[in-house]
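Chapter review. Work through the record for Integrase core domain protein before attempting the end-of-chapter questions.
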Amino acid sequence: MKGFSVKDNPKIYSLKKPTHTAAGLFAGSQSFTNRAFCNEKNHESKNCKLALNLDLQEKTTLLAKKKCCYRCFKTGHMVRPCTNKIKCSQCQRRHYNVMCPELKQVESTGSDKIVDKAVENSNEKFNTLANPTCSADVLLQTLVVYLYGNDGNFPVRALIDTGSQKSYITKEAVSKLSYEPIRAEYMIHNLFGGVESKQKHHLYKVYASSFQKDHHCSFEAYDQNTICIDIPTAISGPWTKVIEKKGIFLSDKEACLDDLASSVHLLIGADIAGKLFTGKIVNLFCGLVAMETLLGWSLMGKLEMK
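Structure tokens for Integrase core domain protein:
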């Protein structure tokens, strides 16, 4: 037959399949129950509290003595041939969090929380909002935005404060959105009078949109128990008609959300605010200033009290 090569005696290949022996099963069982760092039986090695308080060199020494794989903590093989699909949630490399060289346990209360070693030792100082309460005759840059989480979305009052170097979100909002922290940091807050306050904050990825949902964005913010209370909304006044003629929609005035009260759940600091300003500014005859951001218009300035 032309065009084809046909042989009457094709070669027969013998494929050897690996044989699973009782010894192999025993080794697998032994490696599963192996205790790499301590002799306690009530937890896995990756969750060992003793290991959290050891440096990386001490942990690798213990693993070497017990002939355990540095990646999966099991015996019977070394780290290079290890096929276990493990990924560190901090650095994305192939090892358990407890073996991450960039992490260190900083809690002394028995907690298993791990934070960045460099962050723990940081003495960075940040300016933050100085006064948790505000005067009723001065309008600050407030607006209503939607925050998005795994359990849906809901509107909150937001404050733009370029005097704060960082952005913040209340712990109440974080809980309602079911956000997971990226990491924890210690920061020193500078207040008026030179007062310094060192606090621990968790960093979160925040997903937000304008009240009219025509712009969406995401940014990082630190948690805080309370940001600001008793911040007045933009009440009606002689400037109202001017704003309406110019097509300016003030979400903090028009939203009329009773459940929001006067509390602010999101503070947008200088780290984010500059990216949101569009450059549109309207100076009103009464001294107030309307500023447009990608998340909506805000009104600021001193009210004329009669």
